[in-house]
């Protein structure tokens, strides 16, 4: 990686950059967890929205756009994408269930 020091380019190893990081540099990552914005309850509702958006994307991709495609393996891609989408929906709904 190249870094410019006062107009002179110098090659810098990435481990040198990582060694310069302090604990305070990562303090900003704790704020969303402490405020509850990224808690399990909020992420569950966001995954429910993601399930709807993924279904919409799947529909638009294969009903609107891929219908006119001449790609030879369109059917196999559709089946694999459908399986992945169904698996994701199962995971989304499992994470959306509240703890008893």
The overall strand count is: 2
- Low-pLDDT residue intervals, each spanning 5 or more residues: none
Structural domain count = 1
- The protein's oligomeric status is single chain
Radius of gyration based on Cα positions: 22 Å
Share of β-strand residues? 5-15%
List keywords for this structure.
2 strands; 100 residues; mainly alpha
Topology:
Blueprint: E1 2-5, E2 8-11, H1 14-19, H2 31-35, H3 40-65, H4 74-96
Antiparallel strand pairs: 1-2
Write up what this structure looks like.
The protein has helices spanning 14-19, 31-35, 40-65, 74-96; strands spanning 2-5, 8-11. It has 100 residues and is mainly α. The chain has one domain. A two-stranded antiparallel ribbon has the order 1-2. α3 (40-65) runs antiparallel to α4.
């Amino acid at each position: 990686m190249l870094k410019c020091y006062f107009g002179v380019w110098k090659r810098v190893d990435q481990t040198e950059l990582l060694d310069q990081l302090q604990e305070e540099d990562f303090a900003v990552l704790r704020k969303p967890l402490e405020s509850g914005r990224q808690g399990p309850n909020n992420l569950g509702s966001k995954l429910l929205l993601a399930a709807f958006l993924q279904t919409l994307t799947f529909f638009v991709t294969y009903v609107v756009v891929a219908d006119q495609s001449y790609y030879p393996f369109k059917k196999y891609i559709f089946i694999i994408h459908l399986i992945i989408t169904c698996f994701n929906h199962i995971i989304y709904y499992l994470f959306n269930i509240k703890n008893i």
